[in-house]
Design brief:
The protein is an alpha+beta fold.
Length: 372
Amino acid sequence: MLPFEALLDVTATAAVSALAVGGIGLAVLRLVRTRRMAVQLAVVAVATVSAIVAGIIAITLRMFISSHDRDVALTVVAIAGLVGLGVAVLLGRRLARANQALVTAVRAEPFTAPAQVLPAELAELSRELEAAYDRLAAAHTREQALEASRRELVAWVSHDLRTPLAGLRAMAEALEDEVVVDEETVRRYHGRIRAEVDRLTEMVDDLFELSRIHSGTLRLSRQRVGLDDLVAEIVAGAEPLARAKGVRVRGAAERGLPLEVDTAELSRALRNLVVNAIRHTPSDGSVEILGEAGDGRALLSVADCCGGIPAEDLPRVFDVAFRGESARTPGEGGAGLGLAIARGIVEAHEGEIAVANAGPGCRFTVELPLAR
């Protein structure tokens, strides 16, 4: 037989033997696929050595090698197989310990990554689990804060609704029972009823707008508008309220700063900021609205003379129904939803809103992306 033909014969014989043993090994692996990793690694090691042994036996029988040479080759393979089996068992036990450490860490509360060195795959899984637990913890914290905010909103708004409704009932009963009959008092009652109805309507509108923001159903109809035009419109709309309060309102903005925004929604957000500033600024005070560009974004600030906000209240300024006071007295302050609505609208425009104490009062800052 030629050398090349002999090589092909040896290759075919070894391949057939290895495939036969490998098929048996795969069948055994399928049977033990739910067992521990150490058992599966041991099966792999045994199948590998068995495939080599089967190939050597087949080749020796095919090529008429002496029994002494065959015994030597089989002894060498057997020793190598035992070493490989031992390494596989040790590796399996190491994987089992690493897996058990990871399982123990997952069952712990809170999750802490195992201190021992893990294989690369389990180490990556541990990092992903740690990140997932951090996200779950943050989501749980947000859910608790949201639930507390909902309870607070229901309690506060219920009080805000009950007070004007009680007044409306009392005035309606007085008019119906003709307790008041003089024309001046009747006219005053009618005017008060209209004012309370307007306030209740505004409160319901705010609640509806807030529900749209929180439910994600707020739809923006964007159009191009100049920041200076927006500031001028806000100043003109706030002038009557400021004049009645004795507060000066000044506004200025760089010309030529284009925005792609929903004009109605953004005007509502900015109007809430300005009205809030006017309400908390004493008479003879001033509210300043400034619009400018910075770092490729439009910056709009509303500064007032409210005397500043306590440091512990600054993180809660934009919370739903937060007024900065524990007493819920009826008045023109609304249900405390204006700043929460402003934040929701600004964030819907991919913007940011913040507040900080500055000078004689505080300064609200709104950042919005400029139109391309």
